[in-house]
Amino acid sequence: MTGNAVEKDRLLAFSDGVIAIIITIMVLELKVPHEATLEALTPVIPVFLTYVLSFVYVGIYWNTHHHFFHLVRHVDGLMLWANLNLLFWLSLLPFATGWMGENHFAPVPTAAYGIALLMPALAWYGLQSAIIRKEGKDSTLARAIGRDLKGKISPVLYLGGVLCSFLDTRIATAIYVLVALMWFIPDRRIERAIRRP
Amino acid sequence: MTGNAVEKDRLLAFSDGVIAIIITIMVLELKVPHEATLEALTPVIPVFLTYVLSFVYVGIYWNTHHHFFHLVRHVDGLMLWANLNLLFWLSLLPFATGWMGENHFAPVPTAAYGIALLMPALAWYGLQSAIIRKEGKDSTLARAIGRDLKGKISPVLYLGGVLCSFLDTRIATAIYVLVALMWFIPDRRIERAIRRP
Amino acid sequence: MTGNAVEKDRLLAFSDGVIAIIITIMVLELKVPHEATLEALTPVIPVFLTYVLSFVYVGIYWNTHHHFFHLVRHVDGLMLWANLNLLFWLSLLPFATGWMGENHFAPVPTAAYGIALLMPALAWYGLQSAIIRKEGKDSTLARAIGRDLKGKISPVLYLGGVLCSFLDTRIATAIYVLVALMWFIPDRRIERAIRRP
Amino acid sequence: MTGNAVEKDRLLAFSDGVIAIIITIMVLELKVPHEATLEALTPVIPVFLTYVLSFVYVGIYWNTHHHFFHLVRHVDGLMLWANLNLLFWLSLLPFATGWMGENHFAPVPTAAYGIALLMPALAWYGLQSAIIRKEGKDSTLARAIGRDLKGKISPVLYLGGVLCSFLDTRIATAIYVLVALMWFIPDRRIERAIRRP
Q: Are D73 and D108 in contact (CB under 8 A)?
C-alpha cells in the first residue's frame, strides 16, 4: 500500500532532520576562543572529546534507526509517538555534552551524561516494542532482533556509569566509551535478515 | 498526476525541515550551567518543563500535519501560504517557551505563551480551510474532519489560559497541559478514513 | 531518465534544508527578554517586524523556487552552483535582519538590508538564466517566464530602497514591503504553464 | 532492489541535512554589530571572507558528494560510517572558520583552518575507498575516478598551507583559495561516466 510507504517516508525524513540538527548543534558548544594561540585551545579539548563521544552515539542511533526501519512495514500512531519520545531524549544530549565537557568531567555532569545516555536507550526499547507490537512476533524484524542482548545490557551499563561517576569519573567515561564501541559494530542480525529472502 | 505529487512532497519536506529545526532549537534555551553541582540544575528545571510542553505541542502539530496531508490530493498556491503561515507562528514558540521558562511562569510570559499557542491554532484552522476549499466539501478529508470539535474548542481554551495567567498562572499552565493531552491521542477520524477504501 | 530525477530531487532537498534553516535561525535574533513585563517586549517589536518581512521574503523565494523547479527537466553543474550562489546570499538575510531590527531601522542597516535583498534577486536572475540556457528558449519554462517584468523591476526597486535609506528610512522600508507584496501573489504564469498539456 | 535504494536515499537525506545545517550555522559567526554605522562592519569583513571560503568548500563537498553517489549502487555499514566520519570533520569547519575570521588570519588559527580542511579531505578519501571496495575496481565509478589526481594533491596542498601559516598567512590563505578554485570546476569525469550508457 502506497499510503503507508508515504507515512514511513515522512517519519524517516522528520527523524533524519531532527537527528541531523542534534548532531550539528552539539558543535556549537565548541566556543571559538578569543585568543589566537595554541594554548587557547586547551580548554576546548575536553569539550571536543565529549563532542566526539556524543557524535558517535548519535551516529549509532541514526545507523540503528536506519537499519531497523528498513524492515518496518507499517507505521501507526503509537510508533509516531514512540519515535518522538526517542528524539526528545536525544535532543537533551547536546545539553549534557556541553555540561560534562565544560566542567572537565566533574562527577555530577558525568552522572548526568550517563542519564542522558540511559534515557534514549529506554526510549529506543519503547520504540522497538511499539514496532514489534505492530509487526508481530513472527515478523522478520522480531526474529532479527532475537534476544537483543546488546539492547538489554546497555541500560545496565549506563546505570553503572552513573554510579561510578561518584567514585571515579574515569571509570564512568570508560564505560560510556565501551558501550559506544560495542554498538559501533554494525548490527549483523539486521543485515542478515535483509539479505534473506 | 506526478507533478502534483512532487509539489506535495516538497511542501511536506520543507515543513518537516522547519518543524524539525523549531523542535530542536528550543533545546538551546536550556543553557548549560557553569557550575558542576546538582543545585546548578535548579534554575534549569522550569525551562526544562516548558521545553517538554512545547516539544509535545510541536510533536502534536507534526503528527496532525502528517495525518492530514496523507489525504490531501492537490496542492495550490493558497495552501503553500497557509502552510507558511502555520510555520511562521510555530517558529515563535521557542521564543515564548524561553520567556516563560526563564521567568518561572510569571503572569505576562505565561499569557504570551498562551498567545503563542493560540496563533498556530488559528493558522491551522486557516490551513484546514484552504485544504477543504481545494479538496471539496465531500472529499474524504472533509468528511474525516467532520464537525472538528477539538479544533474549535482549543482556541477558546488557549484564550481562557491567557486570561487566567493574570489570576493564577498555575491554572493557565494546567489548561495548556490539558489541551496538549486532549490532542495527544492520535486522530482516530483520519486513521479511520485512511483505512476505509 | 531516472538519474536526472535523482539529481533534481537532491538539489531540491538540499535547497529546502538550507532555506528551512535560514527561515528558522532568523527567529534566534528575537532575544528572550530577562524581565517578565509587557514593556520588556518593546525593544523586541522592531526585531519582530523585520523578522516578519524577512520570513515573507524567504517564503517567497521558497515558493518561487518550488514553482520553477517544477518545470525544470535537466540539472547540470552550472545550475548546482547558481543555486548555491542563491542560497549563499539568502543565508546573509538573517544577519541583515538582525542588524536592521536591533538598530530600529537606522539608515546604514536599512541600506544594508536593501543590499541583502538585492543580492539574492540578482542570484535568482543568474539561476534563471542557467536554467533557460539548459532547457532552451522554447521550453515550457522559458515561455512561462516570458518578459519577466517583476524579476527585472525588483532589483531596481531594491536599489531605490538602498538610496532612500539615507533620506528617510520609512520610504525605504515601504519599498521593501511593496516588493514583497508584489511577489506575494503566486506566479500565475507558471501555474498556467503547468496546467497546459 | 528497492531496499538498497531506500538505504541510499536515507544516507543522502541525512547527509544533505547535516551539510545544510553546517553551511548555515557558519553564518551565525557573523555577529550582528551593535552600532548602526558602516565602520561597525569593518571587524565583520574578515569573518565574512572566511565565511565565503568555507561556504565554497562545503558547497564543493556537497556537489562532489552529489555527483559521486549518483553512481553508487550499494550501501553497506562501512560506507555509513565512512560518511559519518566525513560529516564529523566537516562539522568542525564552522569552528575553524570562526576562529580564523575573528583573529584576522593570525598564524595559529590559519594553520588550524588548514587542518580543518585536511581532515575532511582524508575522510573523503576514506569514503571513496569504502565505496570502491563495495562497487568493485571495474565499476563505472572506479573507472570514472581514475587516478584521482585532484584528490591526491589536495591534502598535500592543505599541509603546505598549514606549514606556510607560520611564515606568511597570506601564502597559506592563497593556497586554500587555490585548492577551492581547483575543485570549483565540476568533475567532468563523473559527468562523462553518467552520460555513457
A: no
Q: Which helix (H) or strand (E) holds A2?
A: helix A2-25
pLDDT confidence of residue C66? 81
* Interface mutation vs chain C, best among D12, D22, D23, D183, most C CBs within 10 Å: D23
Which of these ranges, B137-151, D9-23, D116-130, has the smallest mean pLDDT? B137-151
C54-79 pLDDT, tens digit each? 999 999 999 888 888 888 888 888 88
For residue A80, give the C-alpha cell.
509516531
Cell digits of residue A146: 532475537
Residues 63-92 of chain B whose Cβ lies under 8 A from any Cβ of chain C: 77-78, 80-81, 84, 87-88, 91-92
Q: Distance between alpha carbon C40 and the CA centroid of its chain, in Å?
A: 31
User: What single string gives the DSSP state of each residue in C162-174?
Assistant: HHHTTT-HHHHHH
- Other C-beta atoms lying within 10 Å of the C-beta of residue C146: 9
Taking the C-alpha atoms of residue D189 and residue D141, their distance in angstroms, rounded to an integer, is: 9
Report chain A residues whose CB lies below 8 A from the CB of D88.
52, 55, 59
**Hey, of D1, D2, D7, D10, which one would you mutate to test binding to chain A, going by the most A CBs within 10 A of its CB?**
D10
**Which contacts of A49-53 are long-range, i.e. CB under 8 A and separated by 24 or more positions?**
A49/A101, A50/A97, A50/A98, A50/A100, A50/A101, A50/A113, A51/A26, A51/A27, A51/A97, A51/A101, A52/D88, A53/A97, A53/A176, A53/A177, A53/A180
Please report all neighbours of D, defined by 3+ CB atom pairs within 8 A: A, C
Which residues are CB-neighbours of D129 under 8 A, at least 6 positions away? D82
ipTM: 0.85
User: pLDDT digit string (tens) for C122-165?
Assistant: 999 999 999 988 888 888 888 877 778 888 899 999 999 999 99
Of C3, C17, C109, the CB nearest to D17: C17
CB proximity list for C49: less than 8 A, separation 6 or greater:
C101
Q: What is the pTM of this model?
A: 0.88
Chain D: residue nearest A57 by CA?
D84
Helix (H, G, I), strand (E, B) or coil at B185: coil
Distance CA A58, CA D14 (A): 12
Distance from C-alpha of C110 to C-alpha of A89, rounded to nearest angstrom = 42
In 3D, which of B155, B156, B133 has the Cα closest to residue B145? B133
Average pLDDT, chain B: 87
- CB C175, CB C160: distance < 8 Å: yes
With residue C62 as reference, give the H or E element that holds it.
helix C44-70
What residues of chain D lie within 8 A of the CB of C13, using their CB?
A: 12-13, 16
What are the cell numbers at B118? 493560540
Residue B3 forms contact with C (CB below 8 Å) = yes
Q: Does residue A2 have a pLDDT over 60?
A: no
Inter-axis angle of helices A93-102 and A2-25, nearest 10: 20
Give contacts of A7 with chain B, Cβ < 8 Å: 66, 70
Chains that touch B (3 or more CB pairs under 8 A): A, C
